[in-house]
Specification:
InterPro entries: HNH_nuc (IPR003615). With about 300 residues, the chain is of the alpha+beta class. It has nine helices and twelve strands. It has two domains: about 180 residues, Roll (PUA domain-like), CATH 2.30.280; about 110 residues, no CATH class. Strands 3-4-6-7-8-5 form a six-stranded mixed beta sheet. Strands 1-2 form a two-stranded antiparallel ribbon. The protein has a two-stranded antiparallel ribbon with strand order 9-10. The protein starts with a helix and ends with a helix.
């Protein structure tokens, strides 16, 4: 298949993904993609790098879901330039899967990335480009945004530009995956009031993004409706870590206003969280809650 033909297939696959019936996808649905009257699964069940028969370059990559508290099999990370890294398959740079991904790099072909967010469930990230290859580190460099594709050595020396690149990586990958995993853990319900409309819910950080302990992992997250997320971030609402009860700042309790203040905030005071993950490993990290509660008390 020529590069031009491969590009057309990729565009068709991404357009098909745009029409997916739900935000997350699974192996069965990804196996149903058809192009030119032929079924072309977008994911391999066993391989992390997908290269369909008849193609020279990789079409998609996959990252397996790792439950909270467990160590992932491949240590993908953000590099010092703010760009995402993706580890080789094994330790041989010339493994066929690594060669296939390298061909996507040399041909400047976009790929799809399916990031595991639960067992058998994936968040699709696309288009993604391979923009670097480091055999000595056994990893590829990925661009998750058009702006990152043109990040060169000159930009790498600029700390502001590096920070911009890292912010793009967080928005395009880490925060999307974080939100999806938090919503799954809390079954798309607000931890404070149990509101169940996902469009009105956020994945709130306990420790803020950018802090050393502010990783985008489920134990550092809470599903919150937008009003309670804003109250949490504004130190109007706090969560006592030893009892997991809600506390509203005293000046807000003393205020007289309309029904939103009364029922949405004041009535929440001294109540327990209404929703927690079923899995204990996904529940809020108590040390992080203690730090955040200390900030609330000092407000």
């Amino acid at each position: 298949m020529s590069v031009a033909e491969s590009l057309l297939l990729r565009r068709a696959a991404m357009a098909w993904l745009d029409q997916r019936p739900s935000e997350r996808v699974d192996f069965g649905w990804l196996s149903s993609f058809e192009y030119g009257g032929q079924r072309i699964p977008l994911m391999d069940r066993q391989r992390g790098i997908r290269k369909p028969a008849g193609m020279d370059a990789a079409l998609a990559i996959r990252t397996t879901f790792t439950p909270p508290g467990q160590v992932p099999p491949y240590a993908d990370s953000v590099g010092p330039d703010g760009l995402q890294r993706y580890k080789y398959r094994g330790s041989d740079p010339n493994h066929p899967e690594n060669v296939a991904l390298r061909r996507a790099f040399s041909s400047k072909l976009p790929i799809m990335w399916f990031v595991g967010v639960a067992s058998g469930s994936f968040e699709p990230i696309y288009p993604v480009w391979v923009v670097g290859d480091a055999p000595q580190e056994l990893e590829f460099t990925l661009a998750l945004d058009h702006a990152q594709r043109h990040f060169g050595d000159a930009g790498a020396a600029d700390p502001d530009y590096r920070m911009y690149m890292e912010r793009l990586t967080k928005v395009r990958l880490h925060q999307r995956v974080f939100r999806t995993q938090v919503m799954l853990a809390y079954e798309s319900r607000c931890a404070v009031c149990n509101l169940g409309h996902s469009q009105l819910l956020d994945a709130a950080h306990i420790i803020a993004d950018g802090h050393p302990d502010g990783e985008p992992v489920v134990p550092n997250g809470l599903a919150m409706c937008k009003i309670h997320h804003a109250a949490f971030d504004s130190k109007i609402l706090g969560i006592r870590p030893d009892t997991l009860t809600l506390h509203i700042r005293q000046d807000i309790l003393d205020e007289v206003d309309g029904p939103m203040l009364r029922h949405g905030l004041q009535d929440m005071h001294d109540r327990p969280l209404m929703k927690l993950p079923r899995s204990r490993s996904a529940r809020p990290d108590l040390a992080r809650l203690q730090t955040r509660y200390g900030e609330f008390l000092s407000a």
